[in-house]
Amino acid sequence: MVLWECPAGLEFAYKCGMENWNDLLVSTSSGLYCPPGGFYLDPWNPVSRAIITHAHGDHLRAGSDHYLVSREGLGVFQSRAGLEAAVTALPYGESIEHNGVKITLFPAGHILGSAQVRLEYQGRIAVLSGDYKTFDSDTTCTPFEPVRCHLFITESTFGLPIYQWEPQQRIFDQINAWWRSCRDQGQTAMLFAYSLGKTQRLLSGLDPSIGPIWLHGAGVGPTEAYRREGILLPPTKAVAESPAKHDFSGAIVIAPPSVDNSPWMNRFKEVSTGFASGWMRIRGGRRRQSLDRGFVLSDHADWPGLHEAIAATGASTIWVTHGSVPTLVRHLLEKGYEARPIKTQFVGDRLEETPLPQGEETPSVPSEEALPKEKKSSGRRGKAKNEPEPPTGASES
Ligand SMILES: [Zn+2]
Ligand SMILES: [Zn+2]
Question: What separation in Å is there between the alpha carbon of 378 and the centre of ligand 1?
Fold first, then answer.
C-alpha cells in the first residue's frame, strides 16, 4: 500500500479546505482513505483493506482483499459478500490498532451490525457515521450510540426539515390494521420494502395472529442471517416454495418494490399494495407508483435526529455526505460548525436486485430508501406547494 496514492483525493482535499484533516482522511476516487492506516472506509472499488459500516449495497462492494466489520454484522456481511471473503469481525466498543491508527466500531442503529467507525490518531478523533437512525425502538439491531469526536462525518439521506418520523409503533399499527382489512376483504397485502434491514424490522412489528407471512426470495437470506444472530422474528414462508396455485388471500407478502408490475406478481389474485419507506413522507414518493398505501418508516435519522446526533458528538467539524447535503451543510454553517460536503458515490441499493458494473457512477440516487418507480398513468394529482420532490434519477430496488 503506497501512502498518498490518490492525487485526485489530495486535489479534492485542497479544494474543500480539508487540509486540517488530510493527514488522517482524504476523499479519493475510491472513497474515504486513511493514509497512515492504509485502509479505506466503505470504498466503492476493490481495495486492499476496507472498513465497512454495514452491508447495504452502496457501502459494501465485493472484491477487496480484506474487510473489517462489526461482530454483530458478520453474518449479514457474509450473506452478502460470501463466506470466502477475508474478514475481521470486531465487537462494538473494542479497539484494534492498525499502523498507529486506533479503530473502534460503535452501533449506528441502522440495520443489524451497522457501525460507526471511530478513528483515533495522534490525539485527534474522527467518526464516520455510515447510515444511522437515532431512536431506539427498533429491536432488530443495537441502538445508535453517540460518540464524542473532533470530526464527525454524517450521512444526510433525509436532511430536510420536512422529514420527521412518527413513533415506530404507530406505523406498525397502521400496517397491521391495513393487513387486517385486506384479509377481511379476501385480498393479499403486498408490502414493498428493502430486503435487508427494512424487511426484518417490519417482520418484528407484524402481528402473526392476522395471517401467514410470506417473503420474496430477496428477503429470505437476510432474514435467516438475522435469526442466526438471535433476532426474534415471526415465522415466515418463502413464496418460491409455495405450492402450485396457492391461494395467498389473507396473507401478507413482503417483497422488494422492483417486483411491482413484474410477472412475479401474477400468482397473487386480489392485491392491495403498500410501501414502507421514508420517501412515503412526501406525496411525490407515492405518486410515482400507484400504491394503495404508503407507510413512513425509515432506517435513517430524520431531520431532528441528524441535528441531535451531530450535537451529541461534540464535534466542531462536520462533513456531510449521502443525501440532502447542501441543506444540512447550510444549517450547520449557520449554527457555527465548520461544515463541508464530501464526495460520495451514490449507487443505491438497487444493486441488490440489478447489479451495476463495478465503478459505474450514478449520482443522486437514494440509498436503501429506494424510491418507487414512476408510472406513466395518472397525471391527475398535482404537486403540493413547497413539497420537495424525491431525488431524481432514482430507481427501484
Ligand atoms: Zn444503509
Ligand atoms: Zn447508505
Answer: 31
**CA-closest candidate to residue 153, choices 5, 351, 323, 278:** 323
Can you list the domains of the chain with their CATH numbers? 7-163+299-344 (3.60.15.10), 168-295 (3.40.50.10890)
Q: Residue 7 pLDDT more than 50?
A: no
Q: Measure 299 CA to ligand 2 centroid, in angstroms.
A: 10
Least confident range of 8-17, 214-223, 308-317? 8-17
Neighbours of ion ligand 2 (CB under 5 A): 58, 131, 367
Determine the distance separating the centroid of ligand 2 and the alpha carbon of 274, expressed in angstroms.
Answer: 22
Residue 364 has pLDDT above 70, yes or no: no
Ligand 1 centroid from CA 182, angstroms:
30
Rounded to two decimals, the pTM is 0.85
Distance from C-alpha of 319 to C-alpha of 324, rounded to nearest angstrom:
13
Q: Sheet harboring 151-156: ordered strands across? A: 95-98, 101-107, 115-121, 124-128, 151-156, 317-323, 338-341
272 Cα: distance to centroid of ligand 2 (angstroms): 29
Which-ligand-closest: CA of 367? 2
Do 121 and 93 form a contact (C-beta atoms < 8 A)? no
Residue 203, helix vs strand vs coil: helix
Q: What sign has the CA pseudo-torsion 143, 149, 102, 48?
A: positive
Confidence at 382, pLDDT banded by 50, 70, 90: very low
Q: Which ligand lies nearest to the CA atom of residue 298 in the structure?
A: 1
